[in-house]
TrEMBL record:
Keyword entries, A-Z: Glycoprotein, Protease inhibitor, Secreted, Serine protease inhibitor, Signal
Single GO cellular component term: extracellular space
SUPFAM superfamilies: Serpins
Lineage: Eukaryota, Metazoa, Ecdysozoa, Arthropoda, Hexapoda
CDD domains: serpin42Da-like
Domain Serpin residues, every copy: 1-302
Gene Ontology MF term list: serine-type endopeptidase inhibitor activity
Protein's name in the database: Serpin domain-containing protein
Entry's localization field: Secreted
Similarity-based family: Belongs to the serpin family.
Chief place where the protein resides: secreted
InterPro entries: Serpin_dom, Serpin_fam, Serpin_sf, Serpin_sf_1, Serpin_sf_2
Amino acid sequence: MKSLNSVKNVTLSIANKVFLKNKYVFKASYAATIAKNFQSEVESVDFEKKEEAAKIINTWVENKTNNRIKDLVNADMFDELTRLVLVNAIYFKGKWSHPFPVAQTQTEKFYINDDEIMDVQMMHLTKNLFYKEDETLDAKVLELPYSNKELSMIIILPNKRNGIHELEKKLATVDLSTITENMYKPEVKVSLPKFKIETDVMDLTQPLKDAGLEQIFTDEADFSGMLDNPERLAVSQVVQKAFIEVGEEGTEAAAASGVMISARCMPPPPEDFLADHPFIAALQAKGQNLGNVLFYGKITRPK
């Protein structure tokens, strides 16, 4: 976590916070451990004062995300049984290593599906970039580096205009941190729409239960190592919200080898990467202790 928050030449803030009902107290040793290992803060909140509790949490999130993420929680989420709320906030702002020339951005068609088309602001860039055609995914994979080479955006574009759903199914069984393996660096003619991702509030409670963490949400949860209080305690909610905006200069959001060409030969034509239909975008941190996918989203209606 510390290595992510200290990435140079970009703004990258990853913050976690535990909001605990005010009658409960974390053991000092446990509070110190989560602060050291997860950079996580702890704050006591009176969840029975619903409006005040929501304001406290939302203000913290806004401060940590440069005011890009607002209204993460609302008062209706809390009741007299609310004991513990875990919140994660990520903010990223970075400039491309190779910015898209603004003068080349123009209005073009984007094919949402076989029947629906919309106009988008399409950016254009021709550059030597890490790229591959992945037969298993039936997709093209492109890496767009930021000025700090430890961070990059990975674009996964299905070969078929209506192939996004099949691509998602395949990606569900793939380790995304390995998606950039076996790439090479040809000249690539990139056409990529400007886009923004702003998710609605996501309640991660059910996905965590499905992942085998069901017990922490029940009275069977054992938090005795965390609390000074002997009473039973269960996690009430885990919520998350994300914001990503991609433009010519770079990305704002609340990872080979080159090709040797003989001087006597004509260079091969550039690879064509035309993102005029739904695709996957992932923000990847790499390098020592940075093997993380920070954001992951499906772009179906760029705006």
